[in-house]
Amino acid sequence: MKVKDLIEQLQGMDQDAEVHFSYNYGDHWRTTVAPTVDQIDEACVKYSDYHRMHKVVDDYEEQDEEGTIKVVLLS
Fold it and tell me: Where are the domains of the chain?
């Protein structure tokens, strides 16, 4: 999803509604949890074979490596 897609989808929603994000908690019951979004940041991420998804690049030097992309993070 691109930022423009997110903006487009949010435009038709209640402007006073709280914003949460959801994910599988990983417990036995496969509970879907939904913590609130408290921050919006820009960061660099890179695909991790170990995690089988993108991970946030913490090291400043890694930000210039091939495959690293700049994204918007909701947390």
Answer: 36-75
Write the CB contacts of 70 (distance below 8 Å, at least 6 apart in sequence): 42, 43, 44
Query: Residue 36 and residue 54: Cα distance in Å, rounded?
Result: 21
DSSP string, 19-52: -B--EE--STT--EE-PBP--EEEEEEEEETTTT
Q: Does this model's pTM top 0.70? A: yes
Beta-carbon contacts of residue 71 (< 8 Å; ≥ 6 apart) = 42, 43, 44, 45, 54
Q: What is the pLDDT along the chain (75 residues), one digit of tens a residue?
A: 999 999 999 999 999 999 999 999 999 999 999 999 999 999 999 999 999 999 999 876 677 778 899 999 999
How far from the centroid of its chain's Cα atoms is residue 40's Cα? Answer: 9
